[in-house]
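In this supplementary section we document a worked example of the pipeline. Step one takes a protein sequence of length 255 as its only input; no multiple sequence alignment statistics are reported here. Step two produces a three-dimensional model, which step three serialises into structure tokens for compact storage. The input and output of this example are shown verbatim.
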Amino acid sequence: MQTTADDVRAIERLHVRAWPALETAEVHGWLWRYSGGGSQRANSVSTVQFSGDDPAAALDDVEARYRSRGAIARFHTYDLTSPSGLTGLLAARGYADGETTVTMMKPARSRELPADVEFAERAGADWREIYLGAITESRRAVNARIIDSIPPPRAWFSCRRGGRVIATGLGVVDGEFAVVECMATRAEARRQGAASSVLAGIEAWAAARGVRTLALQAVAANAPALALYRGSGFAPVATNRFWSRIKEVASDSRP
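The serialised model returned by step three reads:
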């Protein structure tokens, strides 16, 4: 599909909106995020835009904020990070290049909601059981709080077979764009098409709301997930990286 830089920026902004950190602050246009727990996205600086004229000073501010929380200083960069020289500055300060994710998009086309997929305006107990059970313990408590703060329009999707939920997903809309979050499948139900059904359900719901582009982010090293998404029509359009400076905490962990 034809994708513009503005499309990629819009999707990156929507991913930020779709997974709101518990505490935020604007730092020269960057969005500083802190939530505690193990979520990287909710504990990193979003670099979609920069309005300052001194990135080094802004970086000092960011590091001071994380240091005051006793937290690792972490940035989330992507192909259109602002300012463009930020990754070099991070590397020079000793930040390590960490987990890489891939932003993928596809045209959202009208389709029927799969018979085995249902959606709701709230995350029910069955949905929470599958999603929270699929993530690391360090992320569960914080992610459970984030789930309750996701702004509308959004919907929680479940694939139900044999009377029980076996896969989940979340769709969040902003204008002509929608993003997919919280994809998870019971271990014993994998490779049975449940995740594909959830993706189809999110696409049907989003297209009915005027969405023209559906997007998601996947860990670059997760080959099975990338294969699933490619099989559902998604194609990569951008690379994202988390940069962490662990020594920032070790050198000064004062409150």
